[in-house]
Amino acid sequence: MQVLRSNAFLWTLQILLALLFAFAGASKFVMDPAQMAPPGSPVSANFLRFIGTCECLGAIGLIVPQLTGILPRLTPIAAMGLIVIMIGAVTVTLMTQPVTLAILPFIAGVLLCVVAYGRLQAYAAARYA
Known about the structure:
By secondary structure, the chain is an all-alpha fold. It is built from 5 helices and no strands.
């Protein structure tokens, strides 16, 4: 449990996850819509652009509130929002692709759970101390 509460460990996870989601979100704006959502895809290109927007905002939410100290309780909320996106990513991947490709969004979701839990614990400890 001490590792989960380690501030440096949580910051490292937050930075890596923010980079992952910033890249993933930005790539959804750069890619050709036909390449993003080929015919027969269960999601539209516009929906993927919406997800890209959410991923970029989530990446900002993982870093900025905790870094500035302004409403740091928003960091675990951003992580929880990204967890919802990862649940959808795992589900869609399992429906359309081989199972092995669902491992990356699953791992990202688990790491987001660690960040959300760790930051919620730190927030609760600071609030009730």
